[in-house]
Amino acid sequence: ETHGITFRIQINVKELLDTDVLLKLLFHLPVNYPLTLPDISVNSDQLTRAQCMDVKDKLLEQAKKHLSEPMVHDLILWIQQHLKYVIKQSATVCNEKTTLSKGTSTEDGIWMLLLHLDHMRAKAKYVKTVEKWASDLRLTGRLMFMGKIILILLQGDRSNIKEYLILQKTSKVDVDSSGKKCKEKMISVLCETKVQSQHKRFQTFEVKEYSTLDELQKEFETAGLTPFFSEFVPPLLK
Asked: Alpha-carbon distance 29 to 98, whole Å?
């Protein structure tokens, strides 16, 4: 009632050379949909991450044309008819982008997200899932364990950060007390902000365990994030 609804749709689309492409679409409809655009996530084993992002962008462009009226069905029909053109255009744009300097970032710049998880029952599977999402979305940072504290620190394009949050909140990533797969309900967004010049950019995503609070604090200090540690971590110990 307060967060809207989320649902997944899988469709087979004939792409170039008449090969089948399985598109996995996730739509999150906010409570004031269709007056507000839905959040859309696109995944496919047959497409690259960049191509999936291009498909998502094109769907959002189409969604704007249907603002204030139900649109999901129309969007699905549109991508079934236009996928091969989007993929073809994506390859051209990709070649153009490689000529840009590496220092060029998106309009929103690089953002940072700090999450707190209450627990992980199926830890090995959960960790593997987080690593895959970070890799797919080109996010760097740390999954940090210290005692009972579990933190996820991510850096990357703002749109990818938002897509990660959708996946984290809507996917069955853990198991409940009876061993049944369940969604993550005990997650807190501690901070979401633009990366500043004094913040170190993580080059990779790593899973790390710390035996003491001092070790965890040094990780934040090394990244130029001491204020974030001071503000958000000590309260978790209470």
From this structure: 34
Q: Residue 2: what pLDDT?
A: 60
Burial 52-62 (b: 16+ CB within 10 A, else e): bbbbbebbeee
Give the sign of the dihedral formed by CA 90, CA 96, CA 99, CA 101: negative
Task: Please classify residue 220 by burial: count the beta carbons closer than 10 Å to its beta carbon, then call 0-12 exposed, 13-18 middle and 19+ buried.
Answer: buried
Using the predicted structure, report yes or no on whether residue 188 has a pLDDT greater than 90: no
Q: What pLDDT does residue 6 have?
A: 87
Which two structure tokens, joined as six digits, stand for 77?
A: 């029909």
Residue 26's DSSP bridge partners are 8, 41
Looking at domain 3-88, its CATH superfamily turns out to be Ubiquitin Conjugating Enzyme (3.10.110.10)
C-alpha to C-alpha distances, 89 to 15, 75, 83, nearest whole angstrom: 13, 18, 10
Write out the H or E segment, with its range, that includes residue 5: strand 5-14
For residue 156, give the nearest of 142, 169, 173, 177 by alpha carbon: 142
Strand (E) or helix (H) holding 74: helix 72-97
Query: Is residue 168 packed enough to be buried (19+ CB in 10 Å), middle (13-18) or exposed (0-12)?
Result: buried
pLDDT for residue 90 is more than 70: no
Q: Mean pLDDT score of the chain, rounded to an integer?
A: 82
Break the chain into its structural domains and give their ranges. Answer: 3-88, 108-234
